[in-house]
Amino acid sequence: MVCALKLKEMALKLFEINAFKFGDFKMKVGINSPVYFDLRVIVSHPDVMDELANLLQEFIVERKLNTSGTHLCGVPYTALPVATLISIKANQPMLIRRKEAKKYGTKKLIEGKFNAGDKCLIIEDVVTSGSSILDTVDDLRSEGLTVADAIVVVDREQGGSQNTEERGVRMHSLYTLSYLLQTMLEAKRIEESTVKAVAKYIEACQIRSDGSFIKNGTTVVNDLSRTRMSFEARTDLAKCPLAKELFKLIATKKTMLCLAADLTDSEEILNLADAVGPYICVLKTHCDIIADFSQQFVRSLQSLARQHNFLLMEDRKFADIGNTVAQQYAGGLYRIADWADLVTVHALPGQGILKGMKSAINVDRPLESRGVFLLAEMSTEGALTDEKYSTATVKMATEMDTDFVAGIVCQNKELVASPGLLQLTPGVKLQEGVDGLGQLYDSPERVVKERGADVCVVGRGIISSKTPSETARIYRDRLWEAYLERIGAEKNGAAN
């Protein structure tokens, strides 16, 4: 049996390194909690991580879950270091589950050597609803693996055990929140009032795996998750005035479609914009590839935007120091600030790039009529926009110049938590795949429901069509149906 003294000692160590803390914290599921766990900090404390892995290994043996041939799989990403240590200590094979399948090479979702029918034991750090465990279970089972048990460090006792049990997975927890509270109280690390407050919270708020929660006996739909909220509901949460306008436009016109008008002839662009205008919310340009760019072209494009009610985005991807970007934005041949409602911007130069752009805005078109999308991820193979960079980009959007940032360009719904920001995702095509230059494509359904996109960029899928107008309508309808399914709304027919 796992030593009770070692369990208490580890609990105190976790508290001392701030792996859990008390206060008022917003949870991933959209509700506030008086206690928060962050076991990611253990990677900075090798001794704690090593001892925790020892305790978990003893626990696994005690529960007789270390049967011959059983693989280990840590839920990405926090549980991966501990799962790796257990694998080494127990000489037990390990699998790695990707959050998203590769679009190149083997295209694997589960990495490691295994056969259909093999058993797999899941390792997780903290469980609230159990949704992360269930996501991992689904992916493992889709590869033919058998999953019946999950080992977790901390069970918050808010429904996770019941939710996983309903899906055929027994959850075994090293600690429960109640045990940790009692241990901290006995060690005089917290007051009894804290214990009572947290206990009351646990009893009053049980969370289901679908994101809803039972509060004081009543089931409540979690309306604070960005991808579960309607565009209408998110409008008032946007801090950027142009984001509010785009939310309203999308909801009114019932389209999430952004056309990438990557053509080199201005007349061809205008003809295309006129044809697909009724079906799009944004038309995206690369003005520096237009061979005959002129201010007359700009005026004609603006006229079409007003006629068909869509916004103009210049995909300039600004990426220089503030002073230079201010000149690129407002001056030169293209005078982008005069006509583009939205522009794309790299976060690499830091906050100065946004300050520079704002300084170039004139009184004729005030700040309220402009917005930027910060580029956090790209849709090409081998892009260098890693997790650290993407996270820092989102932080810029949520903590700085929030009146100017309309959204984030990315591929991952987990990046954009704020319902007031729009997620713009490129690389959408009716047929998924990779082109000859490494551009990755996802279906409309996948990019909306799995990747979390709010605005979906389609280029060659429409441009190369013999009937661009009809093809744009198909994209619009499929994207909107996927959105309705995402928020759990009734399908009341496609837009006219």
From TrEMBL:
Keywords: Decarboxylase, Glycosyltransferase, Lyase, Multifunctional enzyme, Pyrimidine biosynthesis, Transferase. This is Uridine 5'-monophosphate synthase. Substrate binds at D262, K284, S379, Q439, G459, R460. The keyword Lyase applies. Residues 256-475 form the Orotidine 5'-phosphate decarboxylase domain. SMART domains: OMPdecase (SM00934). In the N-terminal section; belongs to the purine/pyrimidine phosphoribosyltransferase family. In the C-terminal section; belongs to the OMP decarboxylase family. Its EC number is 2.4.2.10, 4.1.1.23. The active site is at D315 (for ompdecase activity), K317 (for ompdecase activity), D320 (for ompdecase activity). Pathway: Pyrimidine metabolism; UMP biosynthesis via de novo pathway; UMP from orotate: step 2/2; Pyrimidine metabolism; UMP biosynthesis via de novo pathway; UMP from orotate: step 1/2. Signal peptide: none annotated. One of its GO terms (biological process) is 'de novo' pyrimidine nucleobase biosynthetic process. InterPro entries: Aldolase_TIM, OMPdecase, OMPdecase_AS, OMPdeCOase_dom, OPRT, Or_phspho_trans_dom, PRTase-like, PRTase_dom. It comes from Anopheles minimus. Transmembrane segments: none annotated. One of its GO terms (molecular function) is orotidine-5'-phosphate decarboxylase activity. The keyword Acetylation does not apply.
